[in-house]
Amino acid sequence: MTHVLLLGGTSEASALARALSQAGIAAVFSYAGATRAPLAQPLPTRCGGFGGVAGLVQFIRAQGITHVVDATHPFAAQMSRHACLACAETGSALLALERAPWQPQPGDCWHAVADMAAAAAALPAAPSRVFLAVGRKQLDAFAVQPQHHYLLRLVDAPDALPLPQASVVLGRGPFSAEDDLALLRQHRIEWVVAKNAGGEATRGKLDAARALGLPVVMVQRPALPARASVQSVAQVLDWLGQGGLGHGPGRAGGPASPPAVASAASATPADPA
Question: Which NCBIfam families would you find in this protein's record (predicted)?
Answer without folding.
Answer: precor6x_red, PRK08057.1-2
